[in-house]
Each structure stands twice: as structure tokens, then as C-alpha cells.
Design a protein that fits this description.
With about 240 residues, the protein is of the alpha/beta class. It has one domain: Glutaconate Coenzyme A-transferase (3-Layer(aba) Sandwich). Helices cover about 20% and strands about 25% of the residues. The protein is built from 6 helices and 11 strands. The protein has helices spanning about 10, 35-45, 65, 85-90, 100-110, 175-180; strands at about 20-25, 50, 70-75, 95-100, 115-120, 135, 140-145, 150-160, 165, 185-195, 215. Strands 1, 2, 3, 4, 8, 9, 10 and 11 form an 8-stranded mixed β-sheet that branches. The chain has a 3-stranded antiparallel β-sheet with strand order 5-7-6. Strand 1, helix 2 (about 35-45) and strand 2 form a beta-alpha-beta unit. Helix 5 (about 100-110) crosses helix 6 (about 175-180).
């Protein structure tokens, strides 16, 4: 079955509605499904609850949806790189449900595995545990966390075949694989689109059964969240001159 759509707009056709829950893969700006995020912005859908490790940065990633105030609530682990997020939160225009990063990852994995809830020691005795069920196991106190399921998951993969099998590259793998399993519908964007059988079965991380639709983004922009530079020594500096560029 060929699951490839012509563009992001057609891939999301009939899936978007106001007030829905969307999972968006990525970590910072690494491995984000930005082409699909742009299509969500252009659709005008609003009052979204977005589950993502972070909220992007100003003008990039999920920051695009914050700029247009289409997001009502974020379920995240880290949002410290986005001034727009901060301003909207302090103004009471945006809700946030903070999660320890490992807990967020496990909540997503649990949702995809059909596990409604689990217990973890992380967060017990802190504000994270307020209002949640706690229980003792083997002399230790644990807090119950619910699994997460989204109406729509959008993910980014390095390589995918036309049947929806996906493979990821290095750090860009991050939250994409668990989110692909935890959406009622998953739409993927892939940098390299190949024929079925061209991906080594041992390299497939997300089986195509989880992916409903996909798009090819051969020229995906890969933003650098924080650019760090250092001086480089000249070749003769290796001989002990100490000269620098």
C-alpha cells in the first residue's frame, strides 16, 4: 500500500480539528516534523494541546504555532528556549503540564503500548505528584502517571519506504519512534523515500503498520538551536608554534 501524499496539506486533510491533541516528535530543533507543523499553522486549526519534549524556539519548530496562538496547552519537559512561550504563559494565555523528561518518554511509550498507567518514583514528594495517586512498593513511595495518546502524531524520519516503514538517524531519533506508536493517526515526513525492501529490516525502527500517511521532504531545513564556535589552530600549530586563526 502506497501511503505517500503529494504534500503536507493533503497528508493532513480530514485529520485536523479545533481542540485536538497532537504529538510532535523532535528534541529541541533536532528531528522535528517542521513541514507538517507549517501545514498545521496554515490550516488555522486552534485550541490545540501539543505533546512534545519542548516548545521549539521563537519562529522555529513548535514556536511557529505559538506565534499564531494556535496552542492552548503544552505537555512538555523543557520549554526554556522560547520567549514567546514564556510571555504567553505569564499572561495566562497558555497552559503547561510539566513532566520529568524520562516520565514524559515513558508516558508516551505506555500510551503506544496500550498501558493506561504506571508507577514511578520520579517526582514523588514534589509538585509533580500533587493530585496524583501514590502507592508504596517494597518500602518505597511511587506516583502514578497516565499513559498518553494523541489524536494525531507527526514525526520526522531520515528514511522511509512507500509502505510507511521508518528508520531514523542518530539524535533525530529521539521522541519520534514512541510518538509514532501513540497517535490514533500518525503522519510522517521522511528525507529519503525508497521502495519497499530497500531498508534493511534490522534497521526499521517504526513498522509501517503505525504510519497512516507520509510525505517526502528531500530538502528539509535542519536548524541549529545554539551555535557554538571555537578558534581553530593552524596546521603548523601542531608543531608547537601555538599560532591561531
Amino acid at each position: 500500500m502506497n501511503k505517500v501524499c503529494a504534500d503536507a496539506r493533503s497528508a493532513l486533510a480530514g485529520l485536523l480539528k479545533d481542540g485536538m491533541i497532537i504529538m510532535a516528535g523532535g528534541f529541541g530543533l533536532c528531528g522535528i516534523p517542521e513541514t507538517l507543523i507549517l501545514a498545521i499553522r496554515d490550516s488555522g486549526v486552534k485550541n490545540l494541546t501539543v505533546i512534545s519534549n519542548n516548545a521549539g524556539v521563537d519562529g522555529k519548530g513548535l514556536g511557529i504555532l505559538l506565534d499564531t496562538k494556535q496552542v492552548k496547552k503544552m505537555i512538555s519537559s523543557y520549554v526554556g528556549e522560547n520567549k514567546t512561550f514564556m510571555n504567553q504563559f505569564l499572561a495566562g494565555e497558555l497552559e503547561i503540564e510539566f513532566n520529568p523528561q524520562g516520565t514524559l518518554a515513558e508516558r508516551i511509550r505506555a500510551g503506544g503500548a496500550g498501558i493506561p498507567a504506571f508507577f514511578t518514583r520520579t517526582g514523588y514528594g514534589t509538585q509533580i505528584a500533587e493530585g496524583k495517586e501514590t502507592r508504596e512498593f517494597d518500602g518505597e513511595r511511587y506516583v502514578m502517571e497516565r499513559g498518553l495518546i494523541a489524536d494525531l502524531s507527526i514525526v520526522h524520519a531520515y528514511r522511509g519506504d512507500t509502505e510507511g516503514n521508518l528508520a531514523y538517524r542518530k539524535t533525530a531519533r529521539n521522541f519520534n519512534p514512541p510518538m509514532a506508536t501513540a497517535g490514533k493517526v500518525t503522519v510522517a515526513e521522511v528525507e529519503h523515500l525508497v521502495k519497499p525492501g530497500d531498508i534493511n529490516p534490522d534497521h526499521i525502527v517504526t513498522p509501517g503498520i503505525y504510519v497512516k500517511r507520509m510525505i517526502h521532504v528531500p530538502n528539509a531545513v535542519k536548524h541549529i538551536e545554539q551555535r557554538t564556535l571555537r578558534k581553530r589552530q593552524r596546521a603548523d600549530a601542531l608543531a608547537g608554534t601555538g599560532a591561531e586563526v
